[in-house]
Design goal:
The structure is a homodimer of 263-residue chains.
Chain A: E1 6-12, H1 14-17, H2 25-35, E2 39-46, H3 50-63, E3 66-70, H4 81-89, E4 93-95, H5 97-110, H6 116-119, E5 123-125, E6 129-131, E7 140-143, E8 146-149, H7 153-163, E9 174-181, H8 189-198, E10 203-209, E11 218-225, H9 228-249, E12 257-261
Parallel strand pairs in A: 1-2, 1-3, 3-8
Antiparallel strand pairs in A: 4-5, 6-7, 7-8, 9-11, 9-12, 10-11
Helix pairs in contact in A: 2-7, 3-4, 8-9
InterPro entries (chains A, B): CinA (IPR050101), FLAD1_M (IPR056596), MoaB/Mog-like_dom_sf (IPR036425), MoaB/Mog_dom (IPR001453)
Pfam families (chains A, B): FLAD1_M, MoCF_biosynth
Domain MoaB/Mog (chains A, B): 8-170
Chain lengths: 263, 263
């Protein structure tokens, strides 16, 4: 369990904190890391404010093996992420020749003139390696264990493709999900606790849905872990326990049931 | 600007970090706080892990005027938020008579027997005030400047109704949004920077959309601030500047245009 790489995400952007935009990058990166067996341990969202960004970057990059940031690398005055990264690492920042070429090539392809503002996107901290942006050319960059990516979800997702081969991977987390319908979450709590106590390397979680008095309700029970045999054994034990729970639950609600689902 | 209350959000839940669930509570709370003139300064997402929760709660409650947490107050073994709050504040925790009554009343109404696991949801740190849960009865609680709410979005949203009257409010942030179409973000960067420099109390942001080579693309330009006259004046200056930007942009793409939108 302890040998998997750890990671954090830092979302940089007033638009999330103001409520203007609903973040979707956290989930995209969380799934990406899960598939690589990298443990996402923490997420933070901060303002476009230099001191807060620098302090947070240094806290997270020193705590986790990898830090992924999104946002603040565009052409406008509130795009301060690259400068903040340079300050956090104590390195200089200047126009990166390969980054500038990427921007110029795209300008030519689009029939544009590269203006001074767009050209700002070629400013990269010294020592950084570029991250490809197949969508709109302006690159992200990797500085040490920090991966600096765009905030626009489509671009961020494309950048992850270039990031993946650079990461140390771990044992992928496997999961199986049982859907318990028309039975309250608390009815399954004993089984969850007891089985988890016998499988301390696994994580058994329960996530209720539809809690209003009308309509369907129930709980998703998820068995997660890296050892397939253990996950299967615990799932089978949970199924046996749920059979009893459902049997007792039918007295209260004849619709009580459970099934395994792919979630 | 500095007299508005500040706030942070702490999302407690493996299901967000594992990628199983996409968080929607951040956006709900962000909009709720924005409407009350409370500045959301930071968000963190952590695991169902006692040490990390306690440390994070103490860091955030001592930095910001309010802290809102979601998740981990259900009936199962991984619901450890209430115990963590008691530890973070150095107070005891035990069954709260009013909370227990709420759970029992609901059990009776539903024709259920309240089991030991559900009864755990009546354990509340000493000194806390309950937060009403009109959806499924099990209450949240307020301990000092920390508001502990459910993770299920429907319940969390309902709890905010009971929280709102307890909060000191500030000057609501006003915003106006201009949609610049078929013109790159960088073309507006000069205007944004110059106008923001003349209105330092405002925040001018730009959020590109549709950055692929095909299809529609452009930028949303947002003027935000608490002084309506300043917001209007800056928006008018931005409109004048965008008229020139669009005029120049038409040479590149005849579809170039801008309009004010309600966003």
């Amino acid at each position: 369990m302890t040998t998997n790489p750890t990671a954090a995400i830092l979302i940089i952007g007033d638009e999330i904190l103001s409520g203007r935009t609903t973040d979707s990058n956290i989930n995209t990166i969380a799934r990406f890391l899960g598939a690589l067996g990298i443990d996402l341990r923490e997420v933070r969202v901060v303002h476009d404010e230099a001191d807060q960004i620098i302090e947070t970057v240094n806290a997270l990059r020193n705590t986790y093996e990898y830090l992924f940031t999104t946002g603040g690398i565009g052409p406008t005055h509130d795009d301060i992420t690259a400068d903040c990264m340079a300050k956090a690492f104590g390195v200089d920042i200047s126009e990166h020749p390969a980054a500038l070429k990427l921007l110029m090539d795209r300008s030519i392809a689009m029939g544009w003139t590269l203006n001074e503002n767009s050209r700002r996107m070629a400013r990269i901290p010294h020592g950084a390696e570029l991250i490809k942006n197949p969508v709109s050319a302006a690159p992200g960059f990797q500085l040490g264990n920090v991966f600096v990516m765009a905030g626009v979800p489509k671009i961020m997702e494309a950048m992850l493709e270039d990031v993946a081969p650079r990461l140390r991977t771990g044992a992928r987390v496997l999961s199986r999900t049982l859907k318990l319908s028309y039975v309250g979450e608390s009815a399954a709590a004993d089984a969850l606790r007891e089985i988890n106590a016998r499988y301390p390397d696994l994580s058994l979680g329960s996530y209720p849905y539809g809690l209003s008095l009308d309509g369907a309700f129930g709980t998703h029970l998820v068995v997660r872990g890296r050892d397939a045999e253990q996950v299967d054994a615990a799932t089978n034990e949970l199924k046996a326990a749920l059979a009893s729970v459902v049997e007792a639950g039918k007295a209260r609600n004849p619709l009580a049931s459970f099934e395994e689902i792919t979630a």
